[in-house]
Each structure stands twice: as C-alpha cells, then as structure tokens.
C-alpha cells in the first residue's frame, strides 16, 4: 500500500511582468529574469520570450559558462556553430546547449520565401548558470524533436510536457549538468487545476505564455507574460496551479522551471558568465584572441548569419 503525499503548495513571492527589450539584430524579446526587476534567481540567469519577424535574428555571438535552453513555440529556428554543428528546430522542439569553456553560434528564424512582416517565429530561451567546477567543460548539445518528448495527462483537461525533470510518474529526456526541471503545463478547461511536485529547497518559477493563472487558490489572478517566483519554505513540496473558472479566453499555458540554487558568485559580462572579475576579463581576452576554447572565433562565420537580410 502506498501512502498519499500531503500536498502543501508554495505561494507567490514575487510577480514580474516581462518587459519588451531589444536583442540581437532587429529582434525584440520579453525579458523577466535578467531584467532590472528580477536580476538574480540562482541558478537561472535569463528568460526571454521572443517573437522574431523576417529580417531579424541572432547572428554570430559567443557564450561561456552557462547552459542555454531553446524551446520553439511557433515556427522554425535554425542554428549553426563554429564546431560544425547545425540544424533546424521546429515547433515544440528543444535544444539544450551547454556552452562550457566557449562556443560561438548563430540562431536565426527560418521563413518561407513569401513570408510577410506579420509572420513570426516564437520561442523561449532560458540561461542556466553552470556550477563553478563545470564552467570550463567542453561544449555539448542535447536536442529532441517534439514527438520524442514525454507528455502526460494526469487528468482530463491537463497536458504536461516534460522536457527535463519529473511529473506524475514520468521523466523528461534531458539530463542537465546541475539540477534543473523544465515542464510545459497546459490547463485546457476553466476551473481545472494540477499539483506539480518540486524538490524542497529548489528555486522555482513559472512563466505564463497564454491565459490566466491562479496559484494555491489565492484570489489573485496573473495574466500572460508574467513570471511568478515562488516561496521555498520547509514542508512546501510543490505548486498548485489553476485556471480560474470565471475567466474566459484562451487556454492557460505556462512553463514551470525549477533548479537547485548555486552557492557561488555570478559575474556576467554580456554572454560570458563566470565567478570573478578576473575570469570575466579573461573570457573577453580569450574570445578576442581566439584562444582557450575560442580558437575558431576569429576565422569562422556562419552561413545563416551571413545570409541575413539587412
């Protein structure tokens, strides 16, 4: 006989609306984590919700010291790096890239030739800090097509896609360096709710992609483009997420992300994330000089970035 786990939900500690900010070339993103309103949320460094139009994108740029998670919501994204890796991410595909000691890559939307200004590629990109002893590992990828990612339906009207972590007896495909769960939750009916277990002591937040969200039956409702950061008190073992029953509109869709906080300094200099000012200056030097992981940085140019229309 199995005992029923008592559900004690976390509550909202902070709510931040993701403000629009320019990024890349001609692109605009909604940024919550990494903005002035939510600068530090270890181990998470940045969360961007991008809607990219023709003629814009993210041409050749470097990374060091973090993992980037790209999740395509609509359309297609193409990528290419200076190690020879390239490919296309389609709707609901995921790319988990560990930059480690250094990588230079390009991320560009892929449109049909007759695409107009109203066409967009939509996606989320999350930056996760690497533990200090993993900052200089070799770069690596984990990539998965939508049809190969585990989806569960714990009740009628609830769909949960598990990119990383655990939910209702199922496990996601990604085995990240350090602890991080990434779960896409769709509440398809008014009044429906679901409880998602979260390891005690972990940092946890949700980002609302569409619809309206209620947490732990609190009377406050949160609209799309809000990031909710949760309390982490003893005994709180998860989060109760609900779609209000008296609010009309599109389905409530959120990503719930959780990770073990890192007890280390965060020094971020643009795309370089290290633990000291000396390391930050060294990252800039290594990139400019093409050494210590950036050997190809000065001679490589991506095909997809070079083909960008200006």
TrEMBL record:
Keywords: Iron, Metal-binding. Its cofactor is Fe cation. Gene3D superfamilies: Jelly Rolls (2.60.120.10). Fe cation binds at residues 61, 63, 105, 107. It holds the Pfam family Pirin. Residues 182-292 form the Pirin C-terminal domain. InterPro entries: Pirin, Pirin_C_dom, Pirin_N_dom, RmlC-like_jellyroll, RmlC_Cupin_sf. Signal peptide: none annotated. The keyword Acyltransferase does not apply. Residues 28-128 form the Pirin N-terminal domain. One of its GO terms (molecular function) is metal ion binding. Binds 1 Fe cation per subunit. The keyword Membrane does not apply. It comes from the Eukaryota. Belongs to the pirin family. This is Pirin.
């Amino acid at each position: 006989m199995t005992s029923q786990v008592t559900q004690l939900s976390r509550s909202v500690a902070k709510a931040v609306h993701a403000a629009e900010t320019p990024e890349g070339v001609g692109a605009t993103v909604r940024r919550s984590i990494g903005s002035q309103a939510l600068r530090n949320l270890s181990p998470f460094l940045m969360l961007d919700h991008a809607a990219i139009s023709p003629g814009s994108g993210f041409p050749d740029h470097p990374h060091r010291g973090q993992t980037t998670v790209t999740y395509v919501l609509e359309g297609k994204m193409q990528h290419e790096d200076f190690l020879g890796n390239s490919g296309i991410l389609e709707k609901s595909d995921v790319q988990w890239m560990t930059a480690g000691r250094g990588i230079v890559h390009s991320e560009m939307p892929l449109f049909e030739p007759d695409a107009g200004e109203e066409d967009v590629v939509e996606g989320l990109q999350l930056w996760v800090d690497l533990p200090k002893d993993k900052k200089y590992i070799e770069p690596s990828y984990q990539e998965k097509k939508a049809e190969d990612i585990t989806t569960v339906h714990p009740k009628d009207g609830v769909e949960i896609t598990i990119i990383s972590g655990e939910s209702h007896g199922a496990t996601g495909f990604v085995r990240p360096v350090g602890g991080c769960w990434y779960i896409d939750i769709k509440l398809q009916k008014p009044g429906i709710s679901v409880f998602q277990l979260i390891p005690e002591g972990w940092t946890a937040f949700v980002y609302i992609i569409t619809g309206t969200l209620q947490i732990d039956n609190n009377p406050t409702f949160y609209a799309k483009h809000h990031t909710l950061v949760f309390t982490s008190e003893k005994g709180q073992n998860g989060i109760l997420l609900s779609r209000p029953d008296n609010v009309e509109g599109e389905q409530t869709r959120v990503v719930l992300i959780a990770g073990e906080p890192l007890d280390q300094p965060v020094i971020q200099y643009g795309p370089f994330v290290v633990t000291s000012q000396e390391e930050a200056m060294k990252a800039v030097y290594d990139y400019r000089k093409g050494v210590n992981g950036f050997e190809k940085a000065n001679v490589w140019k991506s095909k997809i970035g070079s083909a960008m229309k200006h």
